[in-house]
Amino acid sequence: MYRTNTCGELRLNHVGQKVTLAGWVQRSRKMGGMTFVDLRDRYGITQLVFNQETDADLCDKANKLGREYVIQVTGTVTERSSKNTNLPTGEIEIIAENLVVLHTAETPPFTIEDESDGGDDIRMQYRYLDLRRSVVRRNLELRHKMAFEVRRYLDELNFLEVETPVLIKSTPEGARDFVVPSRMNPGEFYALPQSPQTLKQLLMVSGFDRYFQIVKCFRDEDLRADRQPEFTQIDCEMSFVEQEDVLNIFEGMIKHLFKKIRGIEFNEPFLRMTWADAMKYYGSDKPDMRFGMKFVEMKDLTEGHNFVVFDSAEYVGGICAEGCATYTRKQLDELTEFVKRPQIGAKGLVYVRFDENGTPKSSVDKFYSADDLKKWGERFGAKPGDLLLILAGPAMKTRKALCELRLEMGSRLGLRDKDTFAPLWVIDFPLFEWDEETQRFYAMHHPFTSPKAEDIPLLDSDTGAVRANAYDMVINGVELGGGSIRIHDSELQDHMFRLLGFTEEQALDQFGFLINAFKYGAPPHGGLAFGLDRLVSMFAGLDSIRDCIAFPKNNSGRDVMLNAPSVLAESQLEELCIKVNPKN
Amino acid sequence: MYRTNTCGELRLNHVGQKVTLAGWVQRSRKMGGMTFVDLRDRYGITQLVFNQETDADLCDKANKLGREYVIQVTGTVTERSSKNTNLPTGEIEIIAENLVVLHTAETPPFTIEDESDGGDDIRMQYRYLDLRRSVVRRNLELRHKMAFEVRRYLDELNFLEVETPVLIKSTPEGARDFVVPSRMNPGEFYALPQSPQTLKQLLMVSGFDRYFQIVKCFRDEDLRADRQPEFTQIDCEMSFVEQEDVLNIFEGMIKHLFKKIRGIEFNEPFLRMTWADAMKYYGSDKPDMRFGMKFVEMKDLTEGHNFVVFDSAEYVGGICAEGCATYTRKQLDELTEFVKRPQIGAKGLVYVRFDENGTPKSSVDKFYSADDLKKWGERFGAKPGDLLLILAGPAMKTRKALCELRLEMGSRLGLRDKDTFAPLWVIDFPLFEWDEETQRFYAMHHPFTSPKAEDIPLLDSDTGAVRANAYDMVINGVELGGGSIRIHDSELQDHMFRLLGFTEEQALDQFGFLINAFKYGAPPHGGLAFGLDRLVSMFAGLDSIRDCIAFPKNNSGRDVMLNAPSVLAESQLEELCIKVNPKN
């Protein structure tokens, strides 16, 4: 036995006990003939005391300990004279009687403290040291707890966790696949799953009724802060259900997590919003509902005043920022610069301030009278002291710009607190997306998503207007998951493939197993998938999903700690019947 | 809502309720103006009744239902006149009032019954139909339950489930890696993990203290019935532990599973046996302890009787088969043929029968007197009516042959019951294995396994004799898991690499990240991994791990249902900077 207790558990009621602890030296300091060592393990920090007077040899040994040495200490638990109320173990200390150095340590390249002095690159390279920092480790503890609670919730509801294969078949539709050459089948390749979508549908055909899996998925896409080449999904599917059943079960799951993990109870049903409304009122399919500032359209109010910018615009609309009439010229200029940035691309920003008497003052006073502006204010529900921020231009683009402006104002006004959560279901997504470049429709979700029954007649006549039984869960502007009710009718599925431009041969080549399976009796089914990485990040209040992943990859898809990927031996490639073929 | 209840839950106390069920038509039969349909879902089977007299249209519709049609039925729960005691729902039936066909079905290529008429190949191709059979689905339900109980047990003990990456670095040591070309790093490859061994050790260096993960692992090896290219491990690691701590925790886990899943309580500690004893007494490092027949060595007893076969043999030994003196000439000939099969390779079989009076009769009466044979009997502890089966030859080979003979006799005597479980820890494995072909030592477990402290002085002088802190859990002759206490001392690790023939450069190239990590303070640590597929197979009483895997691959590594692996588009290969390079 290396230890009798952990570094996190000793309290006043242990005083007098002889204990053995093991862990890492967090820091040590000498003070008046005593040496104090903070000993750290996963569970906490306990103070050790070495006394020069009573045991000089032992104290000398302790004085030689460096940061991050691994040691084992035996001693007696004693009440501290000066207590540290910041530590759960801060009322006691261990009077050391024996010390064993289990492992020495070189000086770490950065400090192992909550606030580290290490940059991102060095912390990625020495990730095993970064993981010693309790702020990082706690994210992974949270991840463990959340995954466990998800399993507990779904198990209670008769969901079966079924492992689907990682070595599957490549399908050209969708994102790029990672592929794996097969040695036993030379010239052929497996693909790593982008999601177990078709496999979980097969499980429904098999009668599994309620499936889930917390599962690694893979997409060979260019990376961003919230994307990793491998990521983890909570993947779920149910049979004999309609959209309402799926939403209820998984709203329940998210509520369960909030309650168990964050102690937050949601007593009301989550807000629901159609995709059309989300786009119209928030310019986004994942609006941040922690705050209001719903878009107000006003094209009709602005016409006929010779203000060409508005008159020539397809769309004129804005938001009302409460209490912001005090914004200075400089602040308004900043906002103007913000919306004019190339990635937002607005041409300019019109404002109207309402002073404490409700008197308007705007950047377009030349075109609109105070009465006109007051009418605008009425439509926005503006009160004295409020500020209207108005953009104009093509509808889609301007709504997106207004969305960014709204989020910026939300941040400036402190309305996007990380400990406030505003869950939302976005429903009624369009079934198709039109792609200008290839001049064809793509499935917005995937080719198995069912259209709304009432929109089926529009499939051929007004394809772009067909709405899907598809839904996303959005919290605080982040899409955490989404899914759909699937097509379970072979004829409708054929129709869908045709609209997506698949020949029958292509459809069979790629999805033959699923199309065939349906012939033997498919139940109505649907489901969804949550991104576990994003869910944990949200619960942990992190900006990037990287910090809730033990060993993440960088933006070039490299694991700089392992130095992967790497070059293979020629013999290994030969055995796999492949060759490296450098691009010119 | 597609249903108010499942097909497994209605009982007498529901009589009179109006219900809606949905599921698959298991079978239907007409009898005296009535049509009876067995409706199946994951939860059970419920009988539906359609009455020609009361509703002819509905009954006609029911008569058109084929097997495996997916239907929805509304009706009233009624007590059955002729009850079926084999079904939990056998006391009731549903008098149907409405019937909706949700999906028709073609005739399945094999019957969806517990005893199917489908061969292995067709059932693999139509795996989604095979999974409808409750005997197959129950294995996956068991798998779900076992994985959940493992998580529950380990979570209680403060183990954290940490996901380690699937895209890692290839290491030439060990089995063949599956590799993944990196598009973003042309010419370089990731490898899929054969196990998260080094990553879990890094987590110990990070202070995670107790780690586990139920995780997919990959080995590109030729396949057998109990091997799949992708398999699932329960992977575990602990810090500040000795071998005893690890054995206790995981013996507890296996006991927990037996109790929760099979209702079997083991009140005694599991048997432990050194590897040396296992080889000596059972000729195997994974002896089946459901029965005795321990090997008895008798070279000394047989010498000097001019029986050249024994006199020239390095090893003479046998087993005592209780009550088998009645074995006929034909049965003994069968056993002789059995041991002479090429894969076993014994030259012949010597037997001694002890009749009801204890009088011996043997195949070597010419060389040994009745008194000699009685002395043999004494050493074996043979009783009247017992049969000795004796082999001779080179020690290692003969023990292995005797092991096969012992298992065969165990099977013949019905001593290998699938519902009896005999767990065993095999301990003190050798640290190294000598390979004749390459004339070097290999790590029996892996290069991070620690030698027993008392054997460290032998590392250079008697390398092959060094025992490891390594252990396997064996149940009923199947190795379910194994692990070791790791080396956490850099000097000892260097020594180990040297003995394994690594240059310093090679060691750094392959394991540099681990070697470097240790420099910053590594705790003593150790762990193990269980094969989940094997564990579930054992609990389910299956002969092959395939039946507890939802979508297994065949012996050529193919998923015949998905038709994977498959050929990629030329453009896909180009983007990955690789080319297929056919062997000549």
The assembly state of the depicted protein chains is: homodimer
**Count of all domains of chain A:** 4
CATH superfamily of the largest domain in chain A: Bira Bifunctional Protein, Domain 2
Count every beta strand of chain A, where a strand is a DSSP E run of 2 or more residues. Answer: 23
Q: Could you name the ranges of chain A where pLDDT drops below 50 across 5 or more consecutive residues? A: none
Shape of chain A: globular
User: What's the tally of helices of chain A?
Assistant: 17
Please tell me about this protein's structure.
Chains A, B: GO terms for molecular function: aspartate-tRNA ligase activity; ATP binding; nucleic acid binding. Chains A, B: Pfam families: GAD (PF02938), tRNA-synt_2 (PF00152), tRNA_anti-codon (PF01336). Chains A, B: This is Aspartate--tRNA ligase. Chains A, B: Homodimer. Chains A, B: Catalyzes the attachment of L-aspartate to tRNA(Asp) in a two-step reaction: L-aspartate is first activated by ATP to form Asp-AMP and then transferred to the acceptor end of tRNA(Asp). 2 copies of one chain form a homodimer. Chain A is of the alpha+beta class. Chain A folds into 4 domains: 12-103, Nucleic acid-binding proteins (OB fold (Dihydrolipoamide Acetyltransferase, E2P), Beta Barrel), CATH 2.40.50; 135-265 and 529-574, BirA Bifunctional Protein, domain 2, CATH 3.30.930; 291-412, Gyrase A, domain 2, CATH 3.30.1360.30; 423-522, no CATH class. The first copy, chain A, is built from 17 helices and 23 strands. Chain A has helices at 56-63, 120-125, 127-130, 134-156, 197-205, 243-262, 275-282, 299-302, 308-311, 329-340, 370-380, 395-412, 458-461, 490-499, 504-518, 532-540, 570-575, and strands at residues 18-31, 34-41, 44-51, 70-79, 92-103, 160-161, 179-181, 189-191, 210-218, 230-239, 271-274, 296-297, 315-321, 350-354, 360-362, 387-393, 423-427, 432-435, 440-443, 470-475, 478-485, 525-531, 578-580. In chain A, the strands form 5 sheets. Chain A has an 8-stranded mixed beta sheet, sandwiched between helices. In chain A, a hairpin with a 7-residue loop joins strand 7 and strand 8 (189-191). In chain A, helix 14 (490-499) packs antiparallel against helix 15. Chain A is globular, with a radius of gyration of 30 Å. The model of chain A has no long low-confidence stretch (mean pLDDT 95). At the A-B interface, strand 1, helix 3, helix 4, strand 6 and strand 7 of A face strand 1, helix 3, helix 4, strand 6 and strand 7 of B.
